[in-house]
Amino acid sequence: MIEQKQRPxxxxxxxxxSRIPIKVxxxxxxxxxxxxxxxxxxxxxxxVRELKQLLREQHLHTxxxxxxxxxxxxxxxxxxxxxxxxxxxxxxRCPFCDVAHGRPDPLDxxxxxxxxxxxxxxxxxxxxxTPVDRxxxxxxxxxxxxxCIAATRTHxxxxxxxxxxxxxxxxxxxxxxxxxxxxxDVFNHNLEAVPPLYTKVPPGSDYEWSLSLIKNFAxxxxxxxxxxxxxxxxxxxxxxxxxxLIDMRRHSCDMRALGQYLQPSRAHLSVERFSTxxxxxxxxxxxxxxxxxxxxxxxxxxxxxxxxxxxxxxHVG
Length: 317
Prior knowledge:
It is a single chain. Helix 4 packs parallel to helix 5, helix 5 runs parallel beside helix 6 and helix 8 packs parallel to helix 9. By secondary structure, this protein is of the alpha/beta class. The chain is globular and about 45 Å long. The N terminus and C terminus are likely disordered.
């Protein structure tokens, strides 16, 4: 009898992106040298080690660790984190992201409690909670998401919560109904890229659908601020970015985060160029002129970075 080779539980890098519509050419030779304005603190402090131990004890995952976020050292040292719920395997194969792809495990019914206990133990005042994409679930995981929010508020009544959500492809109405049962303080859905890059950067996503998700939440949520993020450095033009900013305001987005894309590995999409601090400043000024209530536009910004500092400034305008 021929022994069958066991299929790996998850895929990363080249294996992960091998089946998306657009071929991703691996980087050959030296990767682009980062410019002097892209610097991040190495995650080596005692506080970082303590928080990682706490997360492992509670069987939790963070966006800080899984997608190799450049701000892990700073955020963990300050005692903040973005929690990633519903497991560590994503059903999508986005070539800009370092979260592993695979068939996720069933949802952990104890996760809402573990999450709430960790937030309380970390003494957080603001927490960001985001899921992996769970296209295998009927509601995209929205009901589990709502349970995590509710449990966190029960354990820490004064907590403020921001939620970067997936697009809930094909499940928007059901997902929003679930999330509005235990609403967040900030609703965040990232567009990630300009429309001409949508088949390449977030394959399987739809630009107009994502805009509608933000607008529909805003219309149903009793003035809860909405937020979105966009990566630069993937061959977009400044004018294309400005058009996206205009679209966002037209679809009731209140807050905006613009940051530089950084290539997680040689198998991921390459950085086409590093946008300069002056370009980020120009786009930030443009966004503020459109009426965004809060704009974060610097190279190392991510949608959840300094979310605690941005949220108090948020208002519907």
